[in-house]
Structure formats: structure tokens, C-alpha cells
Amino acid sequence: MNWWKLTRGIQATLMLSSFNAGIGFGLPLCQAMLEDPAKALHPTTGAIATDRKGEPFLPLSEDNTLASLEYKDLPRFMVDALVAREDSRFWTHWGVDLIGFARAVVANLASLRFKEGASTLTMQLVEHSYTRSQKGAINRVQNKVFEWIMAFRVEYYASHVFSSKSKGKQAILASYCNRVGFGHGTGGLIEAARYYFKKEPHELSLGECAHLAGLLRAPTANSAYRNLENARLARDAVIARMLQLKMITEGQANSAHFYVTSNPKVPNRKGDGFTFELIRREITKLKKTGLIPQDIDETSTTEVILTIDADFHRKVTNLVRDELYHIEQRPEFNKGGGTLEGAAVVLENATGAILAIVGGRNYYQQMFNCAVDGKREIASVVKPLIFANYIDLNPKPNQWRISNEALGKNEASGLQGNYHPHETGLLPTGKHSIIDAIAYSSNRASLRAGSIIGWNRWNTLLQQLHLTPSSLPKSTDTWIGSFPVSPISAAAAYATIARCGTMPEPYLIAEVRKRESGLNRPLYIHKNQSHSIFSPLSCSVVHRGMVKVLSHGTASLNAKPMANGSIAGKTGTSSDIADVWFVGYTDTLTIAVWIGFHNNRNPIVRRGDAASLAYPLFEKIVRSSPEKFPAAVNSF
Fold this sequence. Notes:
alpha+beta; Penicillin binding protein transpeptidase fold; Beta-lactamase; five-stranded antiparallel β-sheet; 41% helix; 12% strand; elongated
């Protein structure tokens, strides 16, 4: 026998064993010491978007939930069922159950496999709170070492933050109930109670709590929707353990039943869908410009602060849906046109912040954001912009009367389009003030103002207002709104008038933060930008015309007196009644409303206009808006 080779072999084996031990224990030890134990006690497990008030609005990952409970909200039966099923010594250990650990070691040695890890509730919470690789046997061992160390750190941290071990334990158990999955896509106890039983957590019975606890080890196999017998056996095992630990009486055990709902609904974590996708889109833009890290939305400590007012946004969403439904119930509604769609955008005049944005009726039926991506014929909504541009070029009051006679060919030479469109019957032929031309929506006065402005100057204005991405065909039709515009662009253009000529840049994300040990570190803060488009004089004159739209003009039959300050706006109806608009503003808000069919140009009704179809929604949004938003710096 070559003793030298044997000695070298033993040395190599010991070195390899030491190396494996270092990887198996040293690496997860270092990783656990670098993690923040507070992360396990945060109410969410992933990046979240909050509204402008700091209230949770939407999770930014589909497997995350914002719903959370405090310990006092947990039903006592649920607490006892979890402890009995998963960790009977939970209230006494410090994250690792040494007795259970010893039993697991014996079981693993006997089977020569890693069968048991003696996972406590705290260790399971760690598993759900920190993302780690699950591939391979080495990773599984490392993860278990990480959980042991991290569980102790979480327990120690919780006991100090909440002033005692028992209160720390309560916080750990509450966080566990907020994060653990109960099968069928549910995340947390709130979603599970609603999904399986159509109840809130505090309404759960003993049998229902035992059923949920019985799902934890095998959510699919023990689901009552997949195998009722397995579900009963798992429930009975939990009840038996609770009885053994004297948590319940025999009478309670014998009467413990559960009945799952026959109509479960998978939790929706995307809100209205349109807003979720829009937030994701805005985050992608910030990534591409290098303003935020590439993995920011995958980091559990990320908080994206939106400009949206969550309560107001939900109200506007419901108002859009309700109004579309009411229009469809009208006898004159075109039932063959398809599903009626609508969009609404509400901007804060002072900053351009998006307070509410509704991209459509139902995201899961029509995944197209009409508020941002939908471009439809803007119609007469364009007229105040034309007249504001006209006044900037003709600032003397004696120039503010304009003829509504048909346009002569020499007045707009070289342009295609209609030179004598249909004219409102509310104005006789002759010269009229710009205020009346706006109030009564004169097509021919608008054409004449456009011809005096000139095509090149008008096309430049459209680019400055971001109404079109490129030049339009040279046609007089653009002066009566025969070109497509998105609702958000229309809102920004009207906010320019509300702000006495300075155009805001609409924005959705106000700030991006990273939560670290209870502190918020800003990674990105939006900076407001604006640029001057119109003079205050032209905005003042146009404003008076849009106020008259509601008092005497095209919307006067539908408008009702409101106490929200000065209301100004303009109707817009396409010639085929396929698109109806109302865009306007108050002292604090600018609101754009569009209604139509998404995929075709069918008329909405046989006879109708924007005043009767779009204005009522605008008015309801104004009436529902909170009176807490700041007015524009320069306002009327």
C-alpha cells in the first residue's frame, strides 16, 4: 500500500470537505448577516406603488399583495391552527426549534437524505421574504442554513422593535399570515378567506381556519376544489392536533365544519389593469433614460410614489363605466356598433400631475389604453386653441371680431379640405366676437382664424402642444378638428390655457424610493417642466368663450350650476357622431373626456352630440373631485 498516496487522499478529502462546509455554511452565514431583518416584517413582499397620500395603490409584481392584517385582526382559531399545524413551540423558541431540529437530523441521517428541515413559522416567513435560488441540493442546504440564521435575527429584531418577545412573535405571525400562499393564486389570509369562503378573516369559523392551515403543506393536493377527501383529512389532522394541545374542546372539534364557495374568484392584483400597465411603462422609460436602476421593480424594498389620488381615481373609473352603461340603455343607442368605450384624464393644473386616468372600460376585454394610446378625431375641441393662437398674432381688441362666412379659395391657397363646412345655426352670417365663436362652435370662423394664422405657424403650434407626433396633411379640415388626438394630449393642451399659457408635462411617477431599515432613500424625484405657448391675454379671452359654452353655448342645455369655482370647457362632436369629447377645467383641475367605439367609426347614437353624451361625465367628475388640489400659479 502506498501510504503517501493514502495520506494525500485523506488530505484532499478533508480539504474538499472543508471547502464544501465553507460553501454550505459560511456563504449563507455571510448572506444572512448582510440582509435586513426588518424586511420580513414589511407589510408587502415586493415593490409597490403608492398614491400621492402614501397609501398602497398597486403591487408591481403579480405574485404580491397589498392586503395586510395586524395581529389583533387575526381570528384566534387561525392563530392556534397555524401553531398546531406548523410550529407547536412557536411561542417559546427564538426562530429555530432545537427539539424539532434534533428530530430532523435523526430522520435525515436515518434516510441518508435531506428530508426534513424543522421549519418553524419564522423560518417559513424568512423563506417567503428573501428571494433565493432553489436549484440543486447544495442550494437547498444553503437555504436552510440561511433560514436558521435569519430566523434568529428576525426574532431578535422583532422582540426589540416591539418591546417584548411575545409582541415580536405576534408581529411575526401577522406578517406570516400576510405573505404565505394558500393555493389557487391566493396570497395572504385576506385573499384566502375571500377566495374560499367569501368572508373576511375575522368571520372565519374553526373548521374554516383548520382547512386553511391544512392547505399550507400541500395547497394543490389538499384543495377542496381538487380533492375533497384530502381536504377533509388535512382539516381533521389540524383539528386533532389542536385538541391534543388543548387549544379547543372535544365539543368544538366535533362541530368543526367548512364549506367552500362554489364561485371562487382569483384575486386581481392589477387594479383596473390600464393603470398597472401604464405604471410599468413609465418605469421602463425611467430605466431606459438611466434615471433608476434596471432591477428597481424587482426589489422588494422599492416604493414608487404616484401622482394619482387613489380614492378619486377609483371614483372616476366607476363614473366612466356607469356613464357608458347609461348611454347603452338609451333607445337611440347604436347597438350594432360594438362595445362602447370611454376614457378620462384628470390633471392637476398647478403641476401637470395625473390625478386620475381611465384607459377604458374593462382591461381584460380590451387591453388598449384609450387615454394614452387612443387617438381619435378631436373635432371642435381644437377651436379654443386656434383662437388663442389667433389672438397672440392679433392682440388688439378691434381684431377680435371674425366673420363666419364661407372661406374663399384665396384665403387658404394651396390647402386641400372643406372651405364651406356646415355652420352652426346659433350664429347668423356676419362678424362675431371670438368669445361667441367659441361658445357657439363656429366652424367657419375657426377656418378663417386658421387661414389668417397660416399653415406653417399652425403646424408648429400642434408640435409644441404635442397634439400630433409629426406634420399633418395640409388641409383646412385640421382647423375644424379632423385629425386624431389622445385624451391625455388634449388635457395637457387645455391645462395650458388654465395656466394662462404655460404648458405642463403630464407625469405619473412623482418619486421612486428604496426602503432601508425603516428609512426611505430617494432614487428619483420628478422635476416639473413647463414652457410658454400662449400669452395670458389670449388665454383670458378664450377662457371667457369656454365659460360661455356652459352658460349660453353648446353645452348650456346640459350644464348645471356648480360650486367648484369657474368652469370652462368645450364640446367636440365628430361629423359622424363616432367620437364625442368634452375637455375643460376648474381652478384646480383639467379634465378630458372621450367616448366612442374603439375599433370602428360607427355613430354612437342616431341623433346626439357631445353636450348630451360626454359633458354629463365631465360634470360628474368635477362634482366628485376633492376640493384639496392647489390652483394653478397663474389662474383666472
